Amino acid sequence: MIISLKNKNALIGGSSGGLGKAIAVQLAESGANVTLLARNEEKLKQAVLELPAGEGQKHQFLVTDFSDFEGYKKAISEYFKNNAVDILVNNTNGPKAGSVLEKTVEDFQAAFNMLFQTVQFTTSLALKHMQQNKWGRIINLTSRTVKEPVDTLALSNTIRAAVTTWGKTLANAVAKDAITVNNILTGNFDTERLKHLFTMQAESQGKPLEEIYETTTRQIPAQRLGRPEELASVIAFLASEQASYITGASIAVDGGLIKSL
């Protein structure tokens, strides 16, 4: 199967590194014009230079911070005044770890703004072109924890579950316009974000970081962490014409870690 995204415009959140960057590279390699979206300008400048670019392809980046919702709304609104998006990959920062009992109302509100409000607002702007064009792909990166919550990720468990059910509801509303909406339930991938979480876990438990990695990988049926490019390949397929009849799905990419059906 050859996946071609030529002449498609993609906007990818959290794409200066990690999973977002891997997705951006794969979509660019498949022919899409890519806009990177993140808060670190220096990383974005470097990342956009690393994107594959064939004849006629144009890549760019937008600097904005998911944790500043008012500033984010202003920046993304300006972007959509001059840009149309065919493929939207909603990928946001991860909120601070912590248990449900230690998080305050303010913590949950901040996480809601960062993980949900930004996704809903961006999608509402992207949908205008998609509905006019009768074609679109919306892909939300959530987490395996929406099915099996992790005690130390209370904010992520809660708000990413909201994004997942919102995505399913939206899929039903826009399917008639040949727009698909799917959720990716991400597992443990070898990224800086995961290393940060594992480091916090190691410190809180008084264990070596290597032990946390070993314990985690033993729990994964595939017996290893995922590679970001493995997730990116799934995204490229869902963004393609070949996936036109897949919508409203929540697809686990986790090496078999989720135990439920």
Plain-language structure description:
α1 packs across α8 (228-238) and α3 (69-82) runs parallel beside α4. This protein has one domain: 3-Layer(aba) Sandwich (Rossmann fold), CATH 3.40.50. By secondary structure, the chain is an alpha/beta fold. It is 46% helix and 14% strand. The mean pLDDT is 96. α1 (18-29) links the parallel β1 and β2. The chain has helices at residues 18-29, 41-49, 69-82, 105-133, 154-174, 192-205, 209-219, 228-238, and strands spanning 9-13, 33-38, 60-63, 87-90, 136-141, 179-186, 250-253.
| CATH topology group | Rossmann fold
The CATH architecture comes to: 3-Layer(aba) Sandwich
Helix content: 40-55%
CATH class call: Alpha Beta
Shape designation: globular
Query: Largest sheet, order of strands side by side?
Result: 3-2-1-4-5-6-7
The CATH superfamily appears as: NAD(P)-binding Rossmann-like Domain
Distance between the termini: 28 Å
Could you tell me the mean pLDDT?
96
What gyration radius follows from the Cα positions, in whole Å?
A: 18 Å
N to C succession of SSEs: EHEHEHEHEHEHHHE
Structural class: alpha/beta
Main β-sheet, in a few words?
A: 7 strands, parallel
Q: Tally the helices: what do you get? A: 8
Report the sheet-strand fraction.
Answer: 5-15%
